[in-house]
Amino acid sequence: MGKVVRYALVVLGALVMLFPFAWAVITSVTPDGAVLATPPDLTPDDPTLDAYGRLLEAMPFWRIVLNSAWIGAASTILQLVTGAMAAYAFARLPFPGRGVLFAVYLTTLMVPMQVLVVPLFIEMRMFNLVDTYFALLAPSIASAFGVFLLRQAVAQVPKEFDEAAVLDGAGHLRIFVSVILPLIRPALATFAIFGFMASWNSYLWPLIIIRSPEFRTIPLGLAELHGQFTTEWNVVMAGSVVSVVPILILYVFAQRHVIASVAQSGLK
Amino acid sequence: MTAVKTKAGPKAGATAGPKAQGRRRLRYAGTVALFLLPSAIPLTLFTLVPMAASLWTSLHEWNLIQPMTWVGLGNYAELLGDAETRAAFWHTLYFIAGYLPLVYAGGLGLAVLLNRAMKGRDLFRAIYFLPVITSWVVVALMWKWLLNPATGLVNQALSLIGVAGPGWWTDPVWAMPSVILASAWKDLGFVMIILLAGLQAIPKEYHEAARVDGAGGLRRFRYVTLPLLSPSTFFVIVISLINGFQVFDQVHVMTGGGPAGATQVVVEQIYDLTFRYGRAGMASALSWLLFAVVLIVTVVQVRAQRRWVNYG
Prior knowledge:
The complex is a heterodimer.
Chain A: H1 3-28, H2 32-35, H3 50-58, H4 61-92, H5 98-110, H6 113-126, H7 133-137, H8 144-156, H9 159-167, H10 172-183, H11 185-201, H12 204-209, H13 218-228, H14 233-265
Helix pairs in contact in A: 1-14, 3-14, 4-8, 4-11, 5-8, 11-14, 13-14
Chain B: H1 18-57, E1 60-61, E2 69-70, H2 74-81, H3 83-114, H4 121-133, H5 136-146, H6 153-160, H7 175-200, H8 204-212, H9 217-245, H10 249-254, H11 266-275, H12 280-308
Antiparallel strand pairs in B: 1-2
Helix pairs in contact in B: 1-12, 2-12, 3-7, 3-9, 4-7, 5-7, 7-9, 8-9, 9-12, 11-12
């Protein structure tokens, strides 16, 4: 294959990937009357931010973005803390039944969310927690997958490091915090990225558990927006654009790391 | 380091008196609990208990409001004979049959293109990966707009070359292809990254040897690249099938299972059974049936991999 042909194909591929995003931005700044025009205008003469204004009038969009941001951050931090602690126990603290318990953790990993949503909804209703932040967060306090990933990382740390700390009189908590955690930082970063992305994009569980507009997350808010403005695509696209920007900024900074960890772990 | 015999654990106090030993052991148990409970409690409450509850619910008829009534395996028996369930599985298989070849071929093409050193390779890789980090809801909305029957850009472009575009997600025949198209577009970058990692692990000497033997580009691709890429291919297929069986977000936003039930996939059916038809027991049974299918498909693939996956 010639160099020119190869390059042309690569650029064509990039255009296919970028164009829907570009079209979303263009649509979002198109005035109401021109959105459904035929033929469509790829370069609107009088771009306007009206659609963004209507978006903010239609729903507390900043609050929704904020919800997604803090729920994402909270669930990521919780999963990192609970996951790393369990990982330490499974890799470093021998106790009877440890293998069985680890197998139980792995079992929960195999059960898909679809199996859990109905009883989880009922459980939340039993405790009067439907439509609360807690319910939104509950399934992502601990991640069996995180425990698994981080356990591999802890197991790879040579035991000599712990032993040196023991000689210095350190207990398990201190070994965990000052020896293990710094050494498994790459695994923590990988898991943090995926934990945050999973929470930020999660749709099924919020759809089931949330009723009130003030507890909505971005995917819910967007779906609702689409229901409300069925034909006003400039408003819907404005919402989509606003929701992509924060994760895009994160991506620009963490891009290399994200791609490297996908290639290694096969996650997304 | 060989002199260090002290082991962190219950044996650490072996030389102390029995009382001190007991106290030590208790403290150690406390340490283990301290490290495990933060994950064990939420996993029990929000995964294990719902799992058990789901099995229990699947043996009952329940509309979420009135008390449950025991039906034994009735829900499962009803599902197996139910035309809607069968249709839901067919639609899911249709989705997979369209999505998997498309996303694999596209991902492989991009991976092969990017496998050689070229200017701006990292940038292109990042661009291809962009849809992967975008949420399903956003992707579904963007494509719903692009594929809008009357005013969407795709049909407008088609009309420029004299083709009358189909009704896409409003047409029962074209609704599933619309969902497949959006899904493949989103996941291309993911498949590309996995396959690219696989391509880069193939030793250059193999290609050199094949070239010396007079094999052309296509033959080398067929007899060197593809077999050596098979572990990555296997991985992509396993993951894509698991995700394919669980397809929901993009369907729910683009079509809601319609039009006329044309895209009613299994998870959409679980959702409707629970929240529309008030049949939580049946929904739970269906979710376990889906889980069983996914498990069997995955196990069969792991078994069959020996026949075609080449671990070098």
